Protein 1
Amino acid sequence: MDSTPLTRKLKAFVALTSVELEVLERLHQRRRVFHAGRDLVHQGQSEQAAYILSEGWVCSYKLQMDGSRQIVDFQIPGDFLGLRSVLLHTSDHSVEPIGEIVAAEVLVSDLLAAFAQTPRLATAVLWAVSRDEAMVVEHLVGLGRRDADQRMGHFLLELGARLKLVGLGTRAGYDCPLTQYHLADTLGLSAVHVNRVLRRLREAGLLTFRDGHVTFDDYDGLVALADFDPAYLDHTGPLLK
Amino acid sequence: MDSTPLTRKLKAFVALTSVELEVLERLHQRRRVFHAGRDLVHQGQSEQAAYILSEGWVCSYKLQMDGSRQIVDFQIPGDFLGLRSVLLHTSDHSVEPIGEIVAAEVLVSDLLAAFAQTPRLATAVLWAVSRDEAMVVEHLVGLGRRDADQRMGHFLLELGARLKLVGLGTRAGYDCPLTQYHLADTLGLSAVHVNRVLRRLREAGLLTFRDGHVTFDDYDGLVALADFDPAYLDHTGPLLK
């Protein structure tokens, strides 16, 4: 019953009972495959569904009037896609698969039914959404107050911690399908600047990002550089026993 | 029974029943007064409570290693304070009253009990948290992609829309206790730059911020300048009937 990344993730917050595990499992019934190059959710769209991502990576972004793109975050297995969009009627962002993904469609009525069966699950989902918000806050602080090297280090450490929680990464590193353009639009840098920053971090012996893999050459050194305190990701063990 | 700003706010999302109104009212039992200059919640603190703000304004911020401050958002009546901090064990930010405020303490156990009584309320709180996240996302896009005038216009329009929802503002304007230092630390500008931007917006006939009051001199003109689309604030009427 510990089969889905969402289950693995929520266990960090709540010691799930067998009833809660069953309810979570049922939320994964309508699994579908989606491909790169077509948005799951469009900015400005309404009446869309939310999804639970079980395989692959997804990019959430906003387009500005001038055509520039600000990437808000990436979603990895165990994350909700477009939950905010469903609750807020109109999507404030677009959601695009990076490569092929598998995601289960979830309707608001499914969520309500699940919450009615187990209110602890409602609190767990609230935890997950709060954690997403904490990450956006960190990205905000990154853009406002960190230099390019710190920003990159912080972002790649955060992804590592998130992937580790769902069993897809270790302190040594992780597979990462992102391109330099993804990193540029996330960190507010140009693609050329991204390359320069990655070279600097590699030459400093901190981090290597090559051939779709992030290697932490000096984890503690990178944590110190980026002032990375993972407390906001809350992987300290269940609050609700 | 329509007495609290939180009730007024949640009604935008869910048509509240009398049972739900009662449950909400009970969450406001432990009301306390707090004063400026003392944080309600400290960054790094654990075991703190969450609050529902009923009177006054509050500032949420993060301090960086170098001592600089990034303001993440302001809370106004009807907003939760520190809810994310409670759910995530450790607070990722500090919460400081601006002037005197009134807030009701809420424990996680209170929330769980409320959700058990009415799962629709859980969805409504999830909506409120998602809306908070949507605002942080807008601030992120603002820092990453908007120029100083657009950033200021967007931020003051957003505050206006939020205040209007809880009955504290109109299209003409609103009372606003923020200083130029608050605006600077929110928008990633210096205090001098904030003054210059406000003068420019006033001279363009768009907006006047003086003596604790924001006046929209040309609401539609400001909306056009800032590319402000309030859809992400979701004031379109209840999704859950």
Note: Strands of chain A lie at 31-34, 50-63, 69-75, 80-81, 94-106, 173-175, 207-210, 213-216.
Protein 2
Amino acid sequence: MSSFPSSFFQALTEALGADAVQTGQAIAPRHHSDWSGAPPVQPLALVRPRSTAEVAAVLRLAHAQGVPVVPQGGLTGLAGAAVPHAQGIALSLERMNAIESVDAAAATLTVQAGATLQAVQEAAGAQGLLFGVDLGARGSCQIGGNLSTNAGGNGVLQFGMMREQCLGLEVVLADGTVLPMLRPMLKNNTGYDLKQLFIGAEGTLGVITRAVLRLHPAPAAKVTALVALADFEAALTLLGRLQQRFAGSVAAFELMWRDFVEASLKWQSLREPFDQPHAFVALVDVAGSDEAGLRAALEELLGEAMEAGLAQDAVIAQSQAQAGTLWKIREATAELPTHMHPPINFDVSLPLADIGRFAAQCRATFDARWPGHTAVFFGHVGDGNLHLSVDGATVDHDEAGVERIVYDKVAQFQGSVSAEHGIGTHKKPYLGASRTQEELAAMRAIKAALDPKGLMNPGKVLG
Amino acid sequence: MSSFPSSFFQALTEALGADAVQTGQAIAPRHHSDWSGAPPVQPLALVRPRSTAEVAAVLRLAHAQGVPVVPQGGLTGLAGAAVPHAQGIALSLERMNAIESVDAAAATLTVQAGATLQAVQEAAGAQGLLFGVDLGARGSCQIGGNLSTNAGGNGVLQFGMMREQCLGLEVVLADGTVLPMLRPMLKNNTGYDLKQLFIGAEGTLGVITRAVLRLHPAPAAKVTALVALADFEAALTLLGRLQQRFAGSVAAFELMWRDFVEASLKWQSLREPFDQPHAFVALVDVAGSDEAGLRAALEELLGEAMEAGLAQDAVIAQSQAQAGTLWKIREATAELPTHMHPPINFDVSLPLADIGRFAAQCRATFDARWPGHTAVFFGHVGDGNLHLSVDGATVDHDEAGVERIVYDKVAQFQGSVSAEHGIGTHKKPYLGASRTQEELAAMRAIKAALDPKGLMNPGKVLG
């Protein structure tokens, strides 16, 4: 089963204890893959260290022996970065799941990499504070994975991505060297900001073991509205007015194209939110301390937008339950795997002004090649982030063909092939659409400098 | 005068034209140093390229010849990073000063590195937008230098430092390779976020030539208050309440210790702002769209704080002129060189909760060693950033002794020896107080990977 020399296996067991090292059939199958749908791979061993010192011991041993190491968090990634290496060890952070401290006055939280996003959110909430990142996998995904993939999600418009939440990071390098960059400060101009390299590196430069995260005051009130719009330009104008009026407090601006709204209503048996269908529907959240004032200001802004012909129609939720009903339309994404056969999903980023044209051109190209195809367009448009899902059954299951169309257009519009999900193995073939050869060469030089033997998550991202 | 081979000098002149290459006495003395007070150095040549292609040509030639290159922006740095190398060339970006475009809908601005901060602020303002970084040297400092030092300043509490304003960056590496990472997107998870390395690297990894910057809606209103406080803990509590009530809109929270207020009033012949002296005074700005509402909310919050004994006294400016008068107390920093002989200045960062203790311990240590010394404490305390200035004449001109006291204490409190000014040459001896040997080794490995001949701003930061 194992091609390790027995001395290596013995040294691992001695360093971590027998219960922290598993091999072969003893490794739970959930460690063989992630949510990307990539084919499962059984690693030679799964190790589950309990501390940074144990992570360092594992990496020192693997480095001496030349064994590849694949870090694993909650295994909810969509790009395949956590899929094991058949000749390597999978290093799970799941036992390092402590919230070590919350400093309410400074609004910071120190956490081990294996804590779930939800645990961090709850620890912040217990102090009247908010953690700025939220996403659907919150109960399973782990902070180390969120950092390693620079996760986005629902809060980016207001608070930025994981990178913006991270004040400090403890990292173990490929050779076992620990970089304890955990000083909880907003400002620290002392040489290169090394932690930035590991955020979004998908485990290819080292293992993230602990982090100091920034928290925000939890808003006392949030008001939700659904706005009907005739075209993409109107959506952009509305977004600009919202950000002007509610500077720093626009918590969501999710845009749904008609195809998405129609599919969502059908799949979930919901009623049309407006008297008639509209080309675009925007879901808006604004946050603040005074609910009545917030609602009045939003009513005024949307009233003006309707009078000016900018908005076609609008509804403001009068309760949290009503807000939930409006959000339900957007949450149809959970239904995609049930209703598309299978969905071919994209997570692209584009210059804000080009998103409307990009979507229209993608649709026209699909239409020409696969008349009657099904595709839905939606996304965190306030962040420049468009998601689209194409029903594989309606495009001859030509996933590569659809990807080529989308990513060629991303390259043409100077966009990104991955806004928030990362590269892993899944998007590696298309990295060149968003990065020049010179940029990739610089990344490889950095990889070689920090991981000269190429043992950290080999074959992922740069490959 | 020059130790270049004449062929190198000729090649430079051929590539850039004679008017872009100066040597010896023809180099204006202002290019010999920066605002750090470091001793001036005359470089072998000053080159002033007009384009990224010309910057690349200079670096290719210097790389082939093994000539050190020191990039220069507005020369307002306080750490000495832009001081020339006697055997190298100074590369000034001053001719690359175009604001290339402003995209008001997307709130982004594309700019060449040599544009001044003020030019960027004005270009944003012309579109009803705001650039999030502001600092005293705005009319002279250049965007490339602001990025290379990850500048901070007055807007950090609300908008973050330069790093947070930068969506894209064009960089020329030591060998002349251009990395055109200018895609203007908020979300772009495609491999390592290379631009983060160059931000704050003080020109030691390459030359920043262009950037895409993020803009914000310009707030329609801003209200300023001055609040008297009995102790540091009260200041922290007040800050927390402000951030809770005005989430995302607290634009300034500048704390001044009594020593600073007293010196400021004396130096500028200003009146005491309150009926009696207080241990601490906080200057607060809140921004928003509705001035009357903002003022009413701030009045309510400060009224409650006074009733609860949290604040000792408070005054809210009723006009922009009154706000200017309140701000004048904080702006005494411009008077430091006149009234201290000379000032020994610090820019340190500490965990928020420790700033009060840190300041008290520094003062006690100074007092024990130099009874009757003069020192003033102030800073962007909302960011964890404390400035302090000690009058050299009152501490036997023992600059090294004062530095040792302050930086030892920074190390003890796990703080940063440079919050926003950078390392340059000035703080190099103290880098070890904020960074471990392992962290410095990782930085050197990255430097070697991107600049194997060590020609980019040699001797700065890592040395």
Note: Chain B touches chain A through 94 residues (CB under 8 Å).
